[in-house]
Design a protein that fits this description.
The protein is mainly beta. It contains 8 helices and 44 strands. Helix content is 10%, strand content 61%. The chain has a 44-stranded antiparallel sheet that branches. The longest helix is centred in the first third of the chain and has 14 residues. The protein is elongated.
């Protein structure tokens, strides 16, 4: 570079000599393409008063367009009123630079002195409405240095995706050429102000940035060696890295992150990249440490330690408190990990303290021993769990067992109708593949003094925007007293069997199924139904209670014996086609066949009903304490 400056000095001196006296030189270009995608338009370079002792230099550019993240400028005017030229140096003491960016004008005073052995360049905007920016670049063949200082500096890109507001900061960059190699050192401090680089906003006043970096460039091997890179974010976090980068192998080195408090990092660096509809009001607190080793641009092995971490995801109804652990991974080696928490809340269910231990190899993991998740005075037992990633998609095999989960607490927490009893059962072979969750085996659940059987469970797009569930359920000999007792529907004694076949839910809303709930054959249990249950059953069927007893006499009895009851629904196209235990006169169907005296039958007369209408009826009779006979 110094060689080129000496050549330019000789040319200018020659042009201004008496032998080749020229008064003015002007070069114009309508369009100039520069490296890195920079384009200049309407460029004029003028040297005036060449016959004098101090020529005048002026460079004007109509526009300078740059790709992101660089800024585009317009109305650029660089002026040197007295350019001192001699065989020993080129200098300008009172230069000015003016340009426009967006709606704001920027201006700087500058000084330049170039000699064959040294170059000095200084600029200063002075105090202006955009703040103050000043700096200095100086050097010689063995060392170069650049200093930059910002004071309450403000800047905004045309699109608004880059902005600085009242930013204070300093930067020092030194470069030492060594034959064909270069040694670099940089220090950057940004203690005050605000910044925005879409979509990330950063409050430097609350989280000042301090960066130190040392690097070495080896031209022969085209290799960068990063001796040390340290980034500090106030007292909250620190990131260090060292290693080297060289094509085509990429980065080889070590990265170490330590976060004393994760909350601001999660708020400012993670949340802006996450979907706001799902991650709104999410929060992360606590301390963590992460170390990773890269080989040939691939993550070779890593370790994550957490202590006292709390994570809240309201939209997912998930919260973890007191998370701790040591999680490790490797591309090839077998690694052991552990993770535990003080409390876990999932969909409002309060799980107690748990500790998990597993092994990983590559992208696969396997639970080392069963893990018990306390829930109320029961528990969910993870008996087997393994999974990982295959062809960039996750997979998992899981076996769960339910240990005497109390239904009253469970249903109350989930805001369901209160049920009595306990849940006991096992879910073998829960498999997740290609975005679908399936139950490879069958789930038998002991509940309501009977059994519930789940088969053919499949949930497609479980984590997608429109999940679809398919399943078949059967239930055998459920105790109706336990089942109806918590509801305001009314009291029923007897047994209930039935099925829910070909169930299809889309986005958790019923689309199709074939259902039947009825008295099982050869039921020898006591069968009684309360007056309230009779009325509500009649309302569900869209009909009324029909018997030979007048309504006045009916009100003298609290409950009635019955022979059998039953209700069926085939849901297709938003319409439920209902059936009962038998056909009735006038096109109706029996929902309840009475027995003995006083005898009462419940008959439905509207076989087809819109599914939303039926849901509203069901909600009404389950929630109200008073029944209406129609």
């Amino acid at each position: 570079m110094l060689k080129h400056i000496a050549t330019a000095t000789c040319v200018l001196a020659l042009c201004s000599s008496p032998l080749y006296a020229l008064e003015r030189i002007q070069i114009s270009a309508a369009h100039i393409d520069l490296p890195q995608g920079i384009t200049l338009t309407q460029t004029d370079v003028t040297l005036d008063r060449l016959s004098g002792t101090a020529p005048v230099l002026r460079v004007t550019v109509g526009g300078a367009a740059s790709p992101k993240p660089f800024l585009s400028l317009s109305q650029i005017d660089l002026h040197c009123p007295a350019l001192h030229v001699s065989a020993a140096r080129i200098a300008c003491d009172n230069g000015q630079l003016r340009f426009r960016h967006t709606a704001r004008r920027y201006g700087f005073d500058w000084r330049f002195n170039a000699a064959p052995q040294r170059i000095d360049f200084r600029f200063d905007s002075g105090r202006r409405d955009f703040g103050r920016l000043r700096g200095e670049i100086s050097g010689h063949a063995q060392a170069w240095r650049a200093d930059l200082q910002l004071t309450a500096f403000s800047l905004q890109s045309t699109e608004g995706d880059v902005a600085l507001d009242r930013l204070d900061g300093t930067m020092t960059l030194t470069v030492e050429p060594q034959l064909e190699d270069w040694r670099w050192q940089m220090q950057l401090a940004l203690p005050r102000g605000e910044g925005y680089l879409a979509p990330v906003y950063w409050p430097f006043s609350a989280l000042p940035i301090d960066l130190h970096a040392q690097a070495y460039w080896q031209a022969r091997d085209a290799r960068w060696t990063f001796e040390n890179i340290t980034l500090k974010l106030a007292q909250q976090a620190q990131l260090t890295a060292r290693g080297h980068w060289q094509a085509p192998t990429g980065f080889n080195g070590h990265v170490h992150f330590r976060g004393a408090e994760l909350a601001p990092l999660f708020q400012y660096l993670a949340l802006p990249w996450l979907p706001s509809d799902r991650w709104q009001e999410a929060a992360l607190h606590g301390a963590a440490e992460f170390q990773a080793v890269f080989r040939d641009d691939q993550l070779d092995h890593w370790q994550l330690r957490a202590a006292g971490v709390s994570w809240t995801l309201p939209r997912w109804r998930l919260a973890v408190e007191g998370l701790y652990g040591d999680v490790r991974g490797s591309r090839t080696a077998l690694q052991s990990s552990s993770l535990g928490w003080r409390a876990l809340e999932l969909y409002g269910l309060p799980f107690g303290s748990t500790h998990l231990a597993w092994q990983t190899q590559g992208t696969a993991f396997q639970l080392l021993r069963p893990a018990r998740l306390p829930l109320f005075d029961g528990a969910v037992l993870i008996k087997h769990w393994q999974g990982g990633w295959e062809n960039d998609t996750p997979w998992s095999d899981l076996t769960l067992a339910l240990e005497a989960l109390p239904l009253p607490e469970l249903t109350a927490t989930l805001n369901w109708p209160l049920l009595s009893g306990r849940l006991v059962g096992e879910l073998p072979g829960l498999r997740y593949r290609d975005g679908a969750l399936t139950l490879a085996g069958e789930w038998w659940l002991d509940a309501f003094d009977g059994a519930i059987h789940l088969q053919h469970l499949r949930i497609d797009e479980l984590l997608g925007e429109n999940p679809r569930l398919r399943a078949t359920l059967t239930w055998q000999n459920l105790d109706l007293a336990q089942l109806t007792g918590p509801f305001s529907f009314g009291h029923i004694e007897g047994r209930l069997s039935g099925y829910l076949r070909d169930l299809l839910l889309e986005n958790w809303q019923a689309v199709a199924f074939d259902a039947w709930l009825g008295t099982p054959p050869n039921d020898r249990s006591r069968r009684r139904i309360s007056q309230k249950a009779v009325n509500n059953l009649a309302n569900l069927g869209g009909g009324g209670a029909s018997d030979v007893i007048s309504r006045g006499v009916l009100q003298l009895f609290d409950n009635f014996p019955y022979s059998r009851l039953g209700w069926g629904c085939q849901l297709r196209g938003g319409v439920c086609r209902m059936t009962g235990v038998n056909s009735a006169p006038n096109g109706g169907f029996y929902l309840l066949e009475g027995s003995g005296l006083p005898r009462i039958d419940v008959i439905g007369y509207h076989a087809e009903v819109d599914w939303p209408v039926l849901l509203r009826r069901l909600h009404r009779v389950l929630q109200t304490d008073s029944a209406i006979v129609r």
